[in-house]
Amino acid sequence: MTSPALTIGTTEYRRKFRIVVGNRTKLLLMLAVAVFALGPMLVFGSLLLPAVGEAVAAGNVVAFETITATDVATGGTALLWFGLFALATVRTVSSVGDLDEPACVLVSSPLSAVVVGLVFGEMLAFLTWLVPITLVLSGAFAYGAGTLWPVVVALPFVVVLFCSAFPAGFVVGIGIRHLLTVYEPVARFRTPLLVLVGVAYFGTIAFGQFDRVMTFLFDLFSGSPLGWPGHLLLFGVPNVSPSVVLAGGSLALTGVLAVVAIRAGTWLTSFHWFADPYRKPTDTVPASEPTSSRLSAVLGMGLGRPVTTVALTAIRRAKRAPIRLLYVAYPLFMAAFFVDEIARTGTLPASLAVLCCLYVVWGAGALFTLNPLGDLGPALPTVLTSTVTGRQAVTGHIVAGTVVSVPIAIVVSLAVGLLSPLSLEQTAVLLVGTVIGTIASPALATGVGTVFPRFGSVKLTSKREAVMPSKTAFVVYTLCILIPAGAAAVLYADAAEPMAATATAVLSLSPVGSITVAASRISLAAWIALPAGLLAPLASAGYAVERFDTYVQ
């Protein structure tokens, strides 16, 4: 008879595999990560590790200065353990600790079997892609060292790390998840805490402190039990004497830690999985909300009731489910790459100031108007057959984006303009351009979202779904913002000549032969793209109005 833990583990592994393979977006994302993140690591590792293995086998460790090969192996092992531990913790907090159909799983299987099965399923999922990488890198090192032992011990080494890091990460993850979802004093401030952790993490990377943290952990734990499995990697390597005692001790400690962690995890899940999650108190009186009432009164003075109702509904819909707007914040993660430069120079580059304002313009259209039909959901037939006209519906969405974005545009453009080397005149131009852009981009987004709507929901977390704009709408809308902005930059900076020279130099490397790009063509393209981009919002909004009035699902 198959044990319940093994059944749960293999079932979870198959589910994860089917989710990735069955979702084209996730599959393409995984392939992109494999090519652009893991690909360079495998290439450089395959080229450098043979030389490292040869140097270690020859006893030539001058490159490591005062650090021996054993120190490198144990310190690197400790860092790898911490990486796996952090990965397991985050996965447990975000998804693994959130059971699907808990009433079925917890009744049909012992609690300890569920814990073991979940941990085992996670280990299988990550071993699937880590094992080939391990074999390639260990084979490259073994080739240089002239012995097959590194390949032989590589897989046991990885299994030992997984068997200790993943159970420990599960325990810590369940504890953190219980605090964030059940324990009221912490759960009520869950969102600010998660934002604070995210800011601290990216701030550490942006300010160059991540390397210092890794160096500190390397020095601190290289001789600790966390680094003992590193001795396994050095067996059979000439001129290196690993400790058999510490290698055996690492195996024993791994078994002890795994058992203790599973027992602790079982004890914690007996509280967490059977507890009622914290829910925010819902004091909903939509008709008497002061903010909505004041906004309704302000909008009602210049707009009709249907337009005001559509605008307020779009804002309330986003307010009640803010996770739907998470995609708007994705570009902010790229800001981490500029923080170090800003901290070093003490000033905001002019180019980054313009990019910040361009992001605000882009976000103004992406907030409420990039999926005007799909956002209506089941209410779409009712709205289409109501007395609301297409002009009123589209205007309401544009007003919603404008009301929220214009104040942000004013604050951001003034702040970045004053913090950057831009003159007062340039800051004023940036302010006016950003405000006009935040008014025009929602109009542009209505037409793009109407051409490429999405009506089905997208799975955001293990149990959260929402209707998001389609990927095609995202790409087209972004290009409609970037192309005119790029054309304006080319004409303003008179950059046609250097761009033509760069393009000619790049194309000369192609096997086709020498191709010359004329600066006049780039200028002509810019003069065509800029007016077209300026007229696109009017045409886009007009199309959205017509499509709404004549829409047949």
Protein traits:
mainly alpha
Question: How would you describe this protein?
Answer:
The chain has 553 residues and is mainly α. The protein is 74% helix and 1% strand. The chain is built from 21 helices and two strands. It has a two-stranded antiparallel ribbon. α2 (24-57) packs across α5 (111-145), α5 (111-145) runs antiparallel to α6 (149-181) and α15 (350-368) runs antiparallel to α17.
What can be said about this structure in brief?
The protein is mainly α and 553 residues long. It contains 21 helices and 2 strands. Helix 2 (24-57) crosses helix 5 (111-145), helix 13 (305-320) crosses helix 17 (390-419) and helix 18 crosses helix 21 (519-549).
Main β-sheet, spatial strand arrangement: 1-2
Radius of gyration: 29 Å
The largest pleated sheet is described as: 2 strands, antiparallel
Helix-strand makeup class: mainly alpha
Strand content: under 5%
Apparent shape: globular
- The rounded distance between the terminal residues' Cα atoms is 52 Å
User: What pattern of helices and strands is seen along the backbone?
Assistant: HHHHHHHHHHHHHHHHHHEEHHH
pLDDT averaged over residues: 82
Uncertain segments: 283-288
Task: Please provide the count of β strands.
Answer: 2
Determine the number of helices (DSSP H or I, runs of at least 4 residues).
21
